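Hi F.,

I've been meaning to write this up properly since the lab meeting, where we talked about keeping a consistent format for the predictions we share between groups. The idea is simple: the sequence comes first, exactly as it goes in, then the structure tokens exactly as they come out, then a line or two of notes. No screenshots and no reformatting. I'm using this chain as the first example so we have something concrete to point to.
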Amino acid sequence: MRYLRCGWHLLNLLLATVILGTLALFVGLSDPRKKYSGFIARTWARYILWITRLPYTVHGLENLKPKQKYIFVGNHESALDIPIALATLPYNIVFMAKKELFRIPLFGWAMWAVGMIRVDRQNREQAKLSVQRALDKIARQEISVLVYPEGTRTYTGEMQRFKKGSFILAIQTGLPVVPITICGAFDVVPKKSLVLKQGMVELFIDPPLPTADLTLADRDQLMQNTREIILARKKSQQR
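Output, unedited:
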């Protein structure tokens, strides 16, 4: 029965990606500020959560201002992290994603059309260019950026080291960094698994960390502060 459910979920994921991905291609190319593209991305994410009947809760939305742009920084537990964030954060979200995802037919094209930012993890110079692309998009479009600075999903459930790119981006834009913590997603869908297990997923949104008065010399401290907030939130939920 579990594998039948898994097949049903994958079929619906495929259909939603094909239908909404095709729509995103046409809308994204004629939506320079990515206002409507963000609506399509949220619709895709909400449909995925609805079809899986995944129980989840969100805490801390009151910490956010409706028309403010943010750099959201979170831990990366599971493939569920992105649809949960897209579905629940009330902003046009683009995320920085590894370049390999952009090679997936239709899915990768749709990511490009709605404004997602490609990152080359193996090339330092290309990684710097991805930050510059993000700066340009933030200046021109009605978006906030979502980053998982661990770079990949955890294999063990434990949080990995953070990379600096998102904190450089935050300081250069002057946008607040919002630590977001996902708890429970690893237990529901660990890495390299397609089967959803039973469990509650929670997303915590902590108060934004201002960056307007920071310089690039402060990036390590900003990274450390953000990581400590997320780590403390995870530990508090494991007690």
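Notes:
The longest helix spans residues 2-29.
Helices lie at 2-29, 35-52, 81-88, 107-113, 124-140, 165-173, 185-188, 219-238.

If this format works for you, I'll send the rest the same way.

G.
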